[in-house]
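Q: Please design a sequence for this.
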């Protein structure tokens, strides 16, 4: 261990255990999602027809299949390896885990994608999971009662604008750091959604990988060198 360089120690001490624990926990979680089906089969003998099950799977794959590729690739630089495992296990990635990781890195002053950024992102996501559990527990007991006494316009505002506000804040945060890329990312989105009327999954693919490709070209030409 003492003869290892810093990169080898990072891989051995941190990345390997993270991969092991992350894969085990995600596989266990995936298996547990099947327990309701097993209960219905064992207790009540209910088995869905194969063609109906495949049609349902096809609908889900058509709606969310693109995210299987887009989200891990686009979020990894900020979340890091451990943060990616934790986020996909706990959920609420784009509207909670990602902003928490990004803000933690911003406050501490580390660069996303670095080893320091990986550690800070993991700490931020861990804190968000704990706070989220507490908040969801409280919301389960008092949330509906509070919502019931609020005016309808406020309830509609929470429902319609909370997620866009979070996404806008994250976009603004990184736009200030990458001013050359900010109009490109939003421009691709406006082009595919507003002009071509492309479906959301296709627009996301082009937004993510299109912006990455243009960023790479700009970096090679030293356009992003000063940011």
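A: Design:
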């Amino acid at each position: 261990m003492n003869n290892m360089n810093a990169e080898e120690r990072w891989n051995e001490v941190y990345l390997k255990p993270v991969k092991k624990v992350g894969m085990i926990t995600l596989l266990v979680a995936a298996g547990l999602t099947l327990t309701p089906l097993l209960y219905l089969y064992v207790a009540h003998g209910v088995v869905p027809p194969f063609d109906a099950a495949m049609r349902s799977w096809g609908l889900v794959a058509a709606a969310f299949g693109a995210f299987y590729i887009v989200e891990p690739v686009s979020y990894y630089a900020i979340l890091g390896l451990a943060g990616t495992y934790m986020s996909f296990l706990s959920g609420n990635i784009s509207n909670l885990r990602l902003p928490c990781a990004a803000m933690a890195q911003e406050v501490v002053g580390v660069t996303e994608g670095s080893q320091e950024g990986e550690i800070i992102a993991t700490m931020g996501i861990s804190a968000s999971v704990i706070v989220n559990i507490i908040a969801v527990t409280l919301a389960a007991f008092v949330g509906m009662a509070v919502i019931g006494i609020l005016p309808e316009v406020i309830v509609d505002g929470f429902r319609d604008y909370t997620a866009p506000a979070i996404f806008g804040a994250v976009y603004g945060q990184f736009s200030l750091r990458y001013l050359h890329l900010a109009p490109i990312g939003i421009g691709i989105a406006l082009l595919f959604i507003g002009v071509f009327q492309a479906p959301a999954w296709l627009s996301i693919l082009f937004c993510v990988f299109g912006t990455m490709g243009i960023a790479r070209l700009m970096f090679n030409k030293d356009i992003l060198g000063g940011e």
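Q: Thanks. Anything notable?
A: Helices lie at 6-32, 35-44, 50-90, 93-108, 115-149, 152-175, 182-195, 200-220. The two ends are 37 Å apart (CA to CA).
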